[in-house]
Design goal:
The protein has 169 residues and is mostly helical. The chain has two domains: 54 residues, no CATH class; 89 residues, Orthogonal Bundle (Arc Repressor Mutant, subunit A). The protein has nine helices and no strands.
Amino acid sequence: MPPIGSRAGSRNEHDAEDVVQEASLRAFRYFRTFTGGNGRAWFLRIVRNTCSGWRRPRLQDSTDPFDEQQHSPSQPSTDPEKLLLQTDHVVLIEQAMNRLPTRYQELLALREMEGLSYQELAARLDIPMGTVMSSLSRARQALRAALDDQLKQYNAVARSTDETSERRI
């Protein structure tokens, strides 16, 4: 049964139990600071401080839910030039994707090719939404780096081919 102070401060038995548990962990963690005297008063002060911190709005309660529409392109491009540029280096993109770890390949394929939302990715992969977002960011960075390497190799081959054809002429 939670101490009276925690129940009065939280007005909810389940929150009171959470406050007492948190206060117990804090008391255990900071037991070395206990200088003796009345242990009950010391612990009730920890409960009271924990309860007052518990009533303040928590960061996770005050954040807005993730808006998929805001973070996604609204319409796919139908501009022929853009479509040509997108399909022009498909082989380079496939080679760059093959250089990535399997986890990054899977995330990028599900998000960019199959069009799954962040929430759908989190559900499908059984990971938190924040992990989806940070993993996708890392996967995109890795893909950019791999594409840079592929383009450098592609440009080096193209230059050597140009030089060879110029010598023949």
